[in-house]
From TrEMBL:
<protein>
    <submittedName>
        <fullName>Aconitate hydratase 1</fullName>
    </submittedName>
</protein>
<dbReference type="InterPro" id="IPR001030">
    <property type="entry name" value="Acoase/IPM_deHydtase_lsu_aba"/>
</dbReference>
<dbReference type="GO" id="GO:0051536">
    <property type="term" value="F:iron-sulfur cluster binding"/>
</dbReference>
<dbReference type="Pfam" id="PF00330">
    <property type="entry name" value="Aconitase"/>
</dbReference>
<keyword id="KW-0408">Iron</keyword>
<dbReference type="InterPro" id="IPR036008">
    <property type="entry name" value="Aconitase_4Fe-4S_dom"/>
</dbReference>
<keyword id="KW-0411">Iron-sulfur</keyword>
<dbReference type="InterPro" id="IPR015931">
    <property type="entry name" value="Acnase/IPM_dHydase_lsu_aba_1/3"/>
</dbReference>
<dbReference type="GO" id="GO:0046872">
    <property type="term" value="F:metal ion binding"/>
</dbReference>
<dbReference type="InterPro" id="IPR006249">
    <property type="entry name" value="Aconitase/IRP2"/>
</dbReference>
<feature type="domain" description="Aconitase/3-isopropylmalate dehydratase large subunit alpha/beta/alpha">
    <location>
        <begin position="22"/>
        <end position="261"/>
    </location>
</feature>
<keyword id="KW-0479">Metal-binding</keyword>
């Protein structure tokens, strides 16, 4: 709306913005993991039942943005140390949660824009980084294609891992994710940005783990809770994607909202 636009222009120009200002943020997609994502889909199914009882078609309840649900949290390690362990663990997973998978099999074709990544394909953050993130999103506005940065919210605190490839996103609760799925904005307070300049390169023998522990320690000392951390400087180009993703993945440990490269 006009208020959002005026405040955003002021913010972009470095002008003062009231600390009570809220922005209506519309992420380009939503990322769900199974523990919180399945209840969200159950809510949508219940809303469809309510719509039908009210004389409306079930299709009136549908995600308004693309949604990806990655099943990874529920998988348990029942077998290990064997070439058959993956198959055994997946078989047990499907047996243990058969009702859940029957529901997901129904949900996938029933809801618009819903993709489901089955178990055995990796951790949600890695799947997001390697397969789901587009970096640049595209949408039709007024009949014309418009390209804009890929953004998301996810139902896991380590959603920030994808910040390592310049995709802005962070973790929220299931209710917030569900609201965004249904076309509502995520209300965002005035962002407080903390810049971290990286110079030089890692010495021989040092790893991304060493770097992220150092960064975490220093940012905790500085105090970046609820801040948007942005890494800049010539040292950024010296870090490979896995290194940057490791630093961004640890964002919850130093308390920031996001850790963008």
């Amino acid at each position: 709306d006009g208020t959002d636009h005026d405040a955003l222009v002021s913010l972009a120009n470095g002008e003062a913005v009231s600390p009570t200002t809220e922005f209506s943020f519309y992420p380009s997609r939503v990322l769900l993991q199974d523990f919180t994502g399945v209840p969200v889909l159950v809510d949508l199914a219940m809303l469809r039942d309510a719509a039908v009882r009210g004389g409306k078609p079930p299709e009136s309840v549908n995600p308004q943005v693309p949604v990806d649900l990655v099943v990874d949290h529920s998988v348990q390690v029942d077998s290990f140390g064997s070439s058959q362990s993956l198959r055994i663990n997946l078989d047990r997973e499907y047996e243990r949660n058969a009702e859940r998978y029957r529901f997901l099999r129904w949900a996938r074709p029933s809801f618009d824009g819903l993709r489901i990544v089955p178990p055995g394909n990796g951790i949600v953050h890695q799947v997001n980084l390697e397969h789901l993130a587009t970096v640049v999103a595209e949408r039709e506005v007024g009949g014309e294609p418009v390209a804009f940065p890929d953004t998301l919210i996810g139902t896991d605190s380590h959603t920030t891992m994808v910040n390592g490839v310049s995709v802005l996103g962070w973790g929220v609760g299931g209710i917030e994710a569900e609201a965004v799925m249904l076309g509502e904005p995520y209300f965002l307070g005035r962002p407080q940005v903390v810049g971290v300049e990286l110079v030089g390169s890692l010495p021989e023998g040092a790893t991304a783990t060493d770097l992220v522990l150092t960064v975490t320690h220093r940012l905790r000392q500085k105090g970046v809770v609820d801040r948007f951390v942005e890494f800049v400087g010539p040292g950024v180009s010296e870090l490979a994607v896995p290194d940057r993703a490791t630093i961004s993945n640890m964002c919850p440990e130093y308390g920031a909202t996001s850790a963008l490269f």
